[in-house]
Amino acid sequence: MEIKAIGCEPLQLKRVHLENSHTLKVYQENDGYKWLKKAMEMSPDAIIGEVKASVLRGRGGAGFPTGMKWSFVPKDSPKQKYIVCNADESEPGTFKDRYLMERDPHALIEGMLIAAFALNSQTCYIYTRGEYKYLIDIMDEAVEEARAANLVGKNILGSDFSCEVYTHTGAGAYICGEETALLSSLEGYRGHPRMKPPFPAVEGLYASPTVVNNVETLTAVPQIIEMGGISWRDLGTEKSGGTKLWSVSGHVKKPGVYELPMGYADMERFILEDCGGMLRDDKKLKGVIPGGSSVYIMRANDVIGKKVLMDYEGLVAAGSLVGSGGFIVIDETVDIVDSTKNLTEFYKHESCGWCTPCREGTDWLVKIFNRIAEGNGRPEDAQLILDLCDNIEGKSFCALGDAAAWAIQGAIKRFPEDFKPYLNGQKTTSTEPEARKF
Amino acid sequence: MASVAPTFYTNQVQVTDEVANFSPEVVEEMYLHLTKYPPDRKRSALIPLLFVIQRERGYVDNEGVNFLARFLDLEVTDIWETVTFYSMFNLRPVGKHHIQICKTLSCRIIGEPKITEHICNRLGIHVGETTDDEKFTVSLVECLGSCGTAPMMQIGFDYHEDLTTEKVDKLLDSLS
Ligand SMILES: Cc1cc2nc3c(=O)[nH]c(=O)nc-3n(C[C@H](O)[C@H](O)[C@H](O)COP(=O)(O)O)c2cc1C
Ligand code: SF4
Ligand code: FES
Fold first, then answer.
1. ipTM of the complex in this document
2. Is A337 on the interface with B (CB under 8 A)?
3. Å from A183 to nearest chain B CA?
4. A31-65: b or e for each residue (b if 16 or more CB lie within 10 Å)?
5. Which domain range does residue B27 map to?
6. Which of A46, A185, A379, B117 lies at a 20 to 30 A Cα distance from A2?
7. What is the reported pTM?
8. What are residue B19's phi and psi, to 5 degrees?
9. What are the tens digits of pLDDT across the range A379-420?
């Protein structure tokens, strides 16, 4: 698997190839924790100002400007404030946070501490998906190393700033990546999302002001302090600052984690050259899901010759979204009905069951996809599926419902030729292992 | 053939008042988890503690839950409420090696079905079942964040990536 930067100097990936990059020693030899020191000489407002100027947008999926999110935290609140790192990384096709935490855990700690200093918080939690247990062990070790060096805990670097960093584990639930569900889970409850507003910045963990940020968002913070917000922004574009990690999987020769400057031109070159081209030379590109499974799938025609810019605006213009940057490349051997059925099953399994449109809707969608796959499709099923999606999209309690609807709508609207034979009663030819039908 | 359903059937949980016993070391480990959260927010430690229960007892059992209810000053039902939400908690015993194969899209299009079939054939069980010698349980799970090194599976907490049938055979041979 490749881990490298293309079209820019590696920033997020600056240290990942160094031997023992996860240790405090190597991190400090490479300027680590220098930017925390620098930040602690700045005023909190100045730090937030730099993050605003950087146009850093949340890397967890929603792309919300991080500086703005931070400025929503009420300064005068007498309550304890919390920084929570979202390391739940469960979006299908996404695996960048994993490598950041595995190989550069101190960058995450430094980013959290700078955020904590700027927001006057004394407690940080890293909520990691339960399956990533080995990463929790790595993070625990890194925190202990940092504590021994007086970088975490009481009176950091001899100042009056004290801050604790704790790891916390999830236990297998995609929905706990949604920030309010994550907070419910962190409080020991079922991972149901909460009503917004109040947003977590005002009432989050333990009903106190809380900033929830993705791993990659937080590891960008030391870079912004180092370079200054404007210079960091200028690595990317005016509206999509900096660089971004893309997790590439599927039918390419070189899957991996790639760091690209925002606005990288273009997606065709990225797939066919940077990622080594199609896995099998005689198989053509059929589609790309560029932002984790929860976005509209793109056809080869939307990519080839279209000079799609890889940033927030470029992907919207091309009919999809950046999402989590989980880039799934699909070649012509894939049956889009089968791939969409697979994702529908995912959303049904991960629906938390809190609201009716998503809970019942995803269940019906799976039933319909099963029926179609078995050769009992009907011409009116396409409209039936779209109607069901319409009853989920915008009508669900949280964005998981929308995500499910988008994944399905995109497929059915953009690959009607794949659906057509099924709607006329063709049976699936894809091989289900016998075992699957338990 | 012993069979373990992969999903939770809470009504099958045997409810008794018995409380599990843990060694002083394990109890100390549990107290350590509590230190991460405000004293009036002990419930936050529930998920980490349930993992301790599962590790010590093989699965999340009634006695372990009763213990946690006392330990955290919670009702037993509060704990079951949380346990039954999360897919990583087993409500019944699983084999010594819990094989969890990722079935989501990136793995599926790059060979997961073949791997699943191979493992099930080799072990002579269906997905969701445990071998008679209680050594292996096979489950299908959703994306585990190894899509770039697909197909993949997790055995216990260990990641095994870039799988081929040969690699799977070697791996299963090496597990006692
Ligand atoms: C269903 C769902 C799953 C999500 N999963 C994740 C996740 O695994 N990791 C993540 O960072 N954000 C995830 N998010 C986005 C979070 O709700 C939130 O926007 C993000 O953590 C904020 O951090 P950021 O601004 O740094 O991106 C998810 C959102 C939804 C609706
Ligand atoms: S949309 Fe789905 S995941 Fe979100 S609250 Fe409703 S049921 Fe739960
Ligand atoms: S799809 Fe299998 S690990 Fe992501």
1. 0.95
2. no
3. 10
4. ebbebbeebbebeeeebbbbbbbbbbbbbbbbbeb
5. 5-83
6. B117
7. 0.96
8. -115, 135
9. 999 999 999 999 999 999 999 999 999 999 999 999 999 999
